[in-house]
Amino acid sequence: MLHEKLKRFFGFDTFKGNQEGVIESILNQRDTFVLMPTGGGKSLCYQLPALMLEGTAIIISPLIALMKNQVDAMRSHSEEDGVAHFMNSSLNKAEIEKVKADITSGKTKLLYVAPESLTKQSNIDFLRQIPISFYAVDEAHCISEWGHDFRPEYRRIRTIITEIGAKPLIALTATATPKVQDDVQKSLGMIDAAVFKSSFNRPNLYYEVRKKTEKVDSDIIKYILSQKGKSGIVYCLSRKKVNDFAEILQANNILALPYHAGMDPSTRSENQDAFLMEKVDVIVATIAFGMGIDKPDVRFVIHYDIPKSLEGYYQETGRSGRDGGEGKCITFYSEKDLQKLERFMQGKPVAEQEIGRQLLNETASYAETSICRRKFLLHYFGEDYSQRNCGQCDNCLNPKIRVEAKELLITVLEAIKVLKEKHKTDYMINFLIGKETSEIETFGHNDLEEFGSGSDEDAITWDTVIRCALIEHYLKKDIDNYGLLKLTKKGKDFLKKPVSFKITKEDPLEGDLDLEDDDLVIGGGGSSGGLDPALFSMMKDLRKKLAKKLNVPPYVIFQNPSLEAMAISYPISIEELQNMPGVGAGKAKRYGKEFVELIKKHVVENEIERPEDLRVRTVANKSKLKVSFVQGIDRKVALDDLAESKGIEFSELLSEIEAIVYSGTKINIDYFMNEVMDQDVLEDIYAYFQEAETDNIDEAIEELSEYEETEIRLIRIKFLSDMAN
Predict the structure, then answer these.
(1) Whose CA is closest to 334, among 630, 551, 39, 655?
(2) Contacts with 423 (C-beta within 8 Å, 6 or more apart), sequence order
(3) Exposed, middle or buried, 446 (CB in 10 Å: 0-12/13-18/19+)?
(4) Residue 496: closest CA among 428, 405, 408, 410
(5) Residue 82 and residue 135 in contact, taking contact as beta carbons nearer than 8 Å
(6) pLDDT tens, 715-724?
(7) Alpha-carbon distance 321 to 406, whole Å?
(8) DSSP per residue over 671-704, as a string?
(9) DSSP string, 294-349
(10) In sequence order, what DSSP letters do the residues of 391-419 get, joined into one string?
């Protein structure tokens, strides 16, 4: 009978995965918890029983866009539009009355409501009068504080359901760790629910993490151009970045549109539809995009910024390859992004900050690991992956050397045991390497014999040992107690009888890992298709010669990323030179003539075919904000006031001004520096940059440790503007 209804209502001959078992559970009036990855067919689990049972199913859903999409899909399977409705803040009074009339008449089998709408007394009173078949809570991870999209109003769902009238309950999510699952079931009062858990493994998805450099825009553009005609999503953390990057893609002849919650609802809806209807290839979006969007042929998902949690990452990457076809998931990662996300948490309740940091730490561990990314992800969601090499992630395709680490694991397990299993990973690493932090001194652990027992190895190695020990079940994290490390039975047995334990030696992504253009073929430089080493070397020599002649450090003329871009794209005019990252009009005119002459000569002599059609174009005046910064500085507005007026942090303003100066625009911030800085401090730091071989801020901070980072950055801006522009 079930298969007959499936064929009749949806046109399918067979169920996927656990769908049939879930539907039978609901038809048998059981509370049901469904954990099913994106693309697994969660929606059908409540849609089919809703059509089969008497009464209306109440579907609690978090997003208006998601509701609209689901209602449209249900109506396409029925002759009657009234079969599905949504009730949320987007409807006017007349529309709400129409919805209620269809429900009362018995036409409506599925009613989608936002949790906020469910809590309105008028809606509670109405729902108490109608026959309800069951309740479904979609995106149920939103209930848990440990879930990546926690929504406080979701915590009230059980209370409201009880007030309306108890009926069977189904909770569904694509991303839930064991901790989140437990939290959701407790909150919804469904501890005895039938649980259906599908594998989180999506074998068709390829996972890769790349180091994020100043050339990230260029890298992404080149990748998208290499995927001509394919659908893709680029996720950014901020609305401003979404708007800016969509413009940059458009300027490079890529059919792209932005999508974020701050847009006008009709424009946002139009952009979503344009992507679904394949009028555009790429959508640039915040995480607001994608929940419930059933587009099967998204071929790539790019994260411009590292996500806040692995649940969010898994769900967003899961929107690619839902038809079982190709799905490339590429993430750009830098320590700075992580620090920015940590700053966003400031001001939140302490418990929320602690949870947020743990989720961030897991994401950072994933980004930096050199073990199989699939194995890491599945372990996070409580699933074992037995294969050593998945063949579908960057780490497995470029495996690092595995080394025996039996003795290192013994050291870790003994240290955790000595400290009574009461500390987290960071604390344990500091204890092992012998770092006397204030916390360790407070506990007096620096006096223990085991303190510094791992000082022969660095922090990265110990982090790797602990991470691998967790994945191999020698250790576990007590999530209820903020991630304290505990020995498992397997770990205790290992101490009694050690066996072989291997790890891969890791390099931090922020190091010297060379991901220069990766495997993208972008033309030029003979057959390699990447950076032209001969030209790059000649340009470095030319830069050195000019620097000596003009008495400025070489980096003042052009930074390495700019030279690298030139050695890839071969600009042979001042106009083309301005399209290189970090080269504005002023810099191009001031220093460019000799460089384009050198490049032109090299191209002719070596008969190089230039990749003009793949040149990355920047958006003319793409950021009005930058113009307003320059105007504000011209008017001598205090920089802290300027940052406040634009609603950004002071450090973000400095980053924007640095970008302005690096592109060749001359600015004068003396008026501000004379107000906030002593003259001797200014002279001391300025002298450092005159003599330094690099403008690297980390090296400057280390060398000038007695000064604040803000002071160093301000003077670097002044120096570059004075000398380079």
Answers:
(1) 655
(2) 416, 431, 484, 485
(3) middle
(4) 410
(5) no
(6) 989 888 887 5
(7) 39
(8) HHHHHHS-HHHHHHHHHHHHH-S---HHHHHHHT
(9) --TTEEEEEESS--S-HHHHHHHHTTS-TTSS-EEEEEEE-HHHHHHHHHHTTTS-
(10) SSBHHHHSPPPEEE-HHHHHHHHHHHHHT
Query: Which residues, listed in sequence order, are joined to residue 205 by a DSSP beta bridge?
Result: 327
For the question of whether the overall pTM of this predicted structure is more than 0.70, the answer is no
- Of 276, 281, 240, 232, nearest to 260 (Cα)? 240
Q: 306: closest CA among 284, 328, 287?
A: 287
| Residues 5-50 pLDDT 10s | 888 887 778 898 899 999 999 999 999 999 987 767 888 999 999 9
Give the dihedral of Cα atoms 571, 575, 579, 582; nearest 10 deg. 100
φ/ψ region of 272 (left if φ > 0, alpha if ψ in -120 to 50, else beta) reads alpha
Structure tokens, 487:
């020995």
| Structural contact between residues 424 and 407, judged by C-beta atoms closer than 8 angstroms | no
Torsion angle of alpha carbons 417, 421, 427, 432, nearest 10°?
10
Q: Which helix (H) or strand (E) holds 500?
A: none
* Cα Rg of the chain (Å, integer): 29
**Distance between CA atoms of residues 287 and 660, nearest Å:** 29
Report d(CA 677, CA 716) in Å as an integer: 14
| Residue whose C-alpha is closest to residue 667's, from 687, 639, 693, 648 | 639
Distance CA(133)–CA(212), nearest Å, equals 50
Cross-strand bridge partners of residue 136: 59, 170
Q: H helices within 165-238, ranges in order?
A: 178-187, 216-225
| Helix, strand, or coil (residue 97) | helix
What is the rounded CA–CA span in Å between residue 133 and residue 117?
A: 19
Q: Give the amino acid at 263.
A: M
Q: Where are the alpha helices (DSSP H) in 345-485?
A: 350-368, 373-380, 394-397, 406-418, 425-433, 438-443, 459-471
Residue type, 539: M
Q: How many helices (H) and strands (E) does the chain have?
A: 34, 17
pLDDT in tens, 422-464: 998 889 999 999 998 989 999 999 999 999 999 888 888 898 8
332 closest CA partner among 510, 512, 505, 520: 510
Please state, in angstroms and rounded to a whole number, the distance separating the CA atoms of residues 284 and 656. 21
CA dihedral 363, 369, 372, 374 (to 10 degrees): 0
What secondary structure letter does DSSP report for 529?
-
Give how far the C-alpha of residue 253 lies from the chain's centroid of Cα atoms, to the nearest Å.
Answer: 25
Distance, CA of 660 to CA of 717 (rounded, Å):
10
**d(C-alpha 140, C-alpha 436), whole Å:** 43
Q: How far is CA 107 from the centre of its chain?
A: 42
> Phi/psi of residue 188, each to 5°?
-90, 0
Q: Which residues contact 351 (CB under 8 A, 6 or more apart)?
A: 145
Contact 377, 200 (CB under 8 A): yes
